[in-house]
Amino acid sequence: MEPKPNVSFENTAVAFAHRSDAMLKRMRLLFRLMHYPFWLHAGIQLANWGLKRGLPIKGLIKSTVFEQFCGGEDIASCGARVQELARYGVGTILDYSVEGKKTISSFEHVKDQILQTIREGSGNPHLPFAVFKVSGIANVDVLTKVQAGEALDPAETEAFERAEKRIAEIFEAAAKAGVRIMVDGEESWFQDVIDRWVLAAMATYNRQTAMVYNTFQLYRHDMLRRLKDAHHDAVANGYFLGAKLVRGAYMEKERERAKAKGYPSPIQPDKESTDRDYDRALQFCMNNKQRVFLVSGTHNELSNQVLCELVDLHGMKRNDARVYAAQLYGMGDAISFNLARAGYNVAKYLPYGPVAEVLPYLSRRVEENSGMAGQRSREYKQIKQELVRRKTVRSSFPTIGKN
Ligand SMILES: Cc1cc2nc3c(=O)[nH]c(=O)nc-3n(C[C@H](O)[C@H](O)[C@H](O)COP(=O)(O)OP(=O)(O)OC[C@H]3O[C@@H](n4cnc5c(N)ncnc54)[C@H](O)[C@@H]3O)c2cc1C
Q1: Which of 24, 164, 197, 239 is deepest in the core (most CB within 10 A)?
Q2: Residue 185 Cβ contacting ligand 1 at under 6 Å
Q3: Domain ranges in the chain?
Q4: Distance CA 271, CA 14 (A)
């Protein structure tokens, strides 16, 4: 077998080939602002306030943070981004990112959007997965009570049953359309309810291949064991385990609640423990590749490197459908585009939704980018590096035009 070239995440020409100079300059400004999260957050709060009062600021938001992290206000307007990613071998995972609403009509609306993403994905190789968050279609206060073993009143019982129906409808639609579907991981105090639903769906729909994927958040100290238990259940009951691995997005919230309510924090003691378990989980999935379908959702370069080495070590084709790397749109481009160029399966979440309603999602992205100093600085450095590289190339070859 011919040795395959190693992947490098240093190639900024590959990472940003899909970005014009003007876009890169806007990105540079945005990532520089991430050094001042207080002001950026204040800006988002102000935008929220202004939009609610009808101030004409939508254009400004759209051309800055929204353009960086989102695909558009509806599925149709995401089309250009889907094509753009596809041109470089990167798949899209359409993600309706409206959060925090608790009315029945909103749950139904979100469900309809998810069903629409499933219809879009049917037979479309550029949309390899659909995805959803249970909190978008179910009242999490009710799920929290269920997990805590508390009695529900009749209205809550009805709300719970309706949520079960919505979820069942989504899984069934995905299976009928032949679209693989991932369920995002959320807060630990209602995650057990989600796990039960997703596990049941896997046992039903993952008989021939993995159609349904659950999420495993390795910032939880019990998660590696839970992953192994899930694998054990899949083996015992003859279905495939779909596993999306992530480190986890709600660390502060988890720690604060545990402290406030006086129970031990479910979060690992330190970042090293999370990193260690993430890479062990990658290894575990790959060692059990006959039974496990893996999506590795991370912007961590080392973990992506580990994934690549494992794929090659196991003698798998780089485009084996059992293994995907995934990043979020607007982040980790050096990883996504270099992985795709080296022949690995890659897809990016592409959030969409009305500008005013995706502000909570945008706020979290700002927080994440300002929180993870190393990676944020890295993105910023790579953008600057690419702008300098383009300038140098143009001064050496003046006939090359700006893109
Ligand atoms: C495609 C994709 C899908 C995602 N889906 C989900 C999802 O369904 N549910 C979800 O919760 N998140 C999800 N995320 C977000 C993810 O969990 C991380 O918050 C984010 O990607 C940052 O982690 P990282 O591995 O990319 O980078 P890194 O910078 O290497 O890791 C940062 C993460 O490490 C952990 N960490 C940081 N400090 C500590 C500490 N002191 N102790 C313990 N752990 C620590 C936290 O989880 C933090 O988010 C997703 C991310 C991607 C790319």
Answers
A1: 239
A2: yes
A3: 72-358
A4: 30
Q: State the Rg of the chain over Cα.
A: 21
Residues 6+ apart with CB under 8 A from 276: none
Q: How many CB atoms lie within 10 A of CB 272?
A: 9
What is the identity of the amino acid at 266? P
The pick from 90, 246, 323, 372 for probing ligand 1's pocket by mutation, whose C-beta has the most ligand atoms within 8 angstroms, reads: 246
Q: Which CATH number fits domain 72-358: 3.20.20.220, 3.40.50.300, 1.10.287.3610, 3.20.20.70?
A: 3.20.20.220
pTM above 0.85, yes or no: yes
E-state strands within 191-345: 212-217, 241-246, 292-297, 323-328
What does residue 16 show for φ and ψ, rounded to 5 degrees? -120, 20
List CB contacts of 363: < 8 A, sequence separation 6 or more. 41, 44
Q: From residue 48, how far is each of 158, 216, 330, 352 by CA, in Å?
A: 33, 32, 21, 17
pLDDT per residue over 262-299, tens digit each?
A: 999 999 999 999 999 999 999 999 999 999 999 999 99
